[in-house]
Specification:
Elements: E1 2-5, H1 19-27, E2 31-33, E3 42-43, E4 48-50, E5 56-65, H2 77-89, E6 105-113, E7 122-129, E8 140-147, E9 153-160, E10 166-169, E11 174-177, E12 182-191, E13 204-209, H3 214-227, E14 234-235, E15 240-244, H4 253-261, E16 264-265, E17 272-276, E18 281-284, E19 289-290, E20 293-295, E21 300-311, E22 322-333, E23 339-341, H5 347-357, H6 361-373, E24 377-378, E25 380-383
Parallel strand pairs: 2-18, 17-25
Antiparallel strand pairs: 1-21, 3-16, 4-13, 5-6, 5-8, 6-7, 7-12, 8-9, 9-12, 10-11, 13-15, 14-15, 17-18, 19-24, 20-23, 21-22
Amino acid sequence: MNYNLPSATRLGGLRAPGRSFVASALSAALVIFLISSPAWAIRLKEVATFEGVRINQITGYGLVVGLNGTGDKDQTGFTRQSLSNLLKRMDVTVAPSALKVKNVAAVMVTADLPAFVKPGTKIDVLVSSLGDSTSLQGGTLLVTALKALDGQIYAIAQGPLSVGGFALTGQAATVQKNHPTVGRIVQGGTVEREVPIRWQGKETLSVKLSSPDFTTAARVAEAINESLPGASARPLDAATVELNVPANYRENLAVMVAELESINIIPDSIGKVIINERTGSVVIGENVKFSTVAVAHGNLSVQIREGVTVSQPDAFSGGETVTAPETDINVEEGADNLLLIERSTNINDVVKALNAIGVTPRDLITIFQLIQAAGALHGELEIL
């Protein structure tokens, strides 16, 4: 086995790295750099929502039938009881203890109910096994009522499942692809009740930022005041901007919201470095800054060679051939000088400096932690 940790390359005119070395170091790693660009703007609808406009979750309990022996076991009492109750409603009386449920599975059905959705609209539903079923492949969901937290039925669901996976079991092996105990029914839910939202006639409206930030909230309020005179928008906190609804929009609020959604703003965010040690990924945010810092990154090479020594006796000596393992370990450590990362004013300078270092993301993870410990990393370091 041969472990090589690449050496650092000096900056600031001391020693320039070769292009091939930098390219290979970058291509061999999973590193993502978010490069900054000139001032850019995005629509308000991409970073914010409006008060009352939200998704609601609905849930229901149901049965999936038509399975090929992959349903719940007979010991799953609630499945047998549910099947017995279902048959009783159809004027078929069977004791739960007399039922076999290997082709039936008890499931939980979930769905997202968008705002302003009208009765009769089709929505997707997600079906998840509740008992000990091994696969829902080929099953059909029986009509299931979907309720919200207020106990009201807002949709019903029924239809054949699309699992997108399988599970095959033999006497000595099992083969599984994806997750066969969860399936989806595309357009399998029908909305029966509209979520009540007080919309028309509002005198004030709140804009909710998806990522709370005081600077972004202030910019949103300023942009709204420039686009809609009389709105008197003001940031209440890092996540909420409140504005007055002009009189000419109070009975036609949808038009005002459409105008607000198209307003361009420049969101702000804190400088952040995100590290995933499991995958070796490093993401550097746009606003990350470095103070001048010197880094020494040593070159360590460890070579381990395994072999076998054979002792062969002379012919007709009556001895036995003997083998013994042999290990040769060679350790070499380079003597690299300190490299200097100059104080950077933007992410482009940071990326150029890191590219010139020529280290892998695994090394960058350690280097970033040490730079932060030295107080030279101006931003938040988050390790996943």
